């Protein structure tokens, strides 16, 4: 069974969490095994990421940048990769973010996570609380990721 990690940060209003859950629903509906992890609730062990087939990363826009919890993941990932690249590089992944009206995080989000591997689908954006259209786009992304995991 294809495995997907949905790694996100959500702290303020649950906007990014709702998007993460929708990505997970889409992937699950397409037959994938889904793990959700909120970096506001802990620090992900990079070994979890190493083992999954695909990932999705979601962040709120914090000062036009990604949330600190996701940056910590990238730092951990980078250091772990120096020791053993196996399973840490070339990982297909999807991206999503929420913002309060600015949304300039898209550029650093796409640029930073490009190091992890090939992006799957379109980056999904939500201004404030995700509406039905945004949630449908998140579910679609989850389905695309589940498909990418089977290739
Ligand atoms: C510390 C902090 C910094 C923020 N900076 C920005 C910003 O630069 N641009 C923007 O559009 N929204 C900004 N916001 C708003 C959040 O991105 C937005 O409310 C987001 O949906 C919160 O996601 P969450 O509910 O999942 O935590 C900021 C919020 C916080 C708490």
Tell me briefly what this model is:
This is Flavodoxin-like domain-containing protein. The chain is an alpha/beta fold.
What characteristics describe this protein?
151 residues, Rossmann fold, five-stranded parallel β-sheet, 5 strands, globular, binds flavin mononucleotide, Flavodoxin-like domain-containing protein
Tell me what you see in this structure.
It holds the Pfam family FMN_red. GO terms for molecular function: FMN binding. This protein is α/β, with parallel strands linked by helices. Helices cover 42% and strands 20% of the residues. It has a five-stranded parallel beta sheet with strand order 2-1-3-4-5, sandwiched between helices. Strand 1, helix 1 and strand 2 (33-38) form a beta-alpha-beta unit. Helix 1 packs across helix 5 (132-149). It is globular and about 40 Å long. The mean pLDDT is 97. Flavin mononucleotide binds next to helix 1 and strand 4. Flavin mononucleotide is lined by residues 10-17, 60-64, 98-103.
């Amino acid at each position: 069974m294809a495995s997907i990690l949905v790694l996100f940060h959500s702290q303020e209003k649950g906007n990014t969490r709702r998007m993460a859950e929708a990505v997970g629903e889409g992937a699950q509906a397409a037959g994938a095994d889904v793990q959700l992890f909120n970096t506001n609730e802990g620090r992900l062990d990079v070994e979890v990421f190493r083992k999954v087939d695909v990932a999705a990363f979601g962040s709120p826009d914090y000062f036009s940048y990604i949330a600190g919890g996701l940056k910590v993941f990238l730092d951990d990932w980078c250091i772990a990769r120096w020791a053993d690249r196996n399973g840490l590089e070339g990982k297909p992944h999807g991206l999503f973010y929420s913002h309060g009206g600015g949304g300039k995080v898209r550029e650093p989000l796409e640029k930073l996570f490009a190091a992890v591997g090939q992006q799957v689908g379109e980056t999904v954006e939500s201004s404030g609380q995700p509406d039905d259209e945004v949630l449908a786009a998140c579910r679609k992304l989850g389905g695309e990721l589940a498909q990418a995991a089977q290739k």
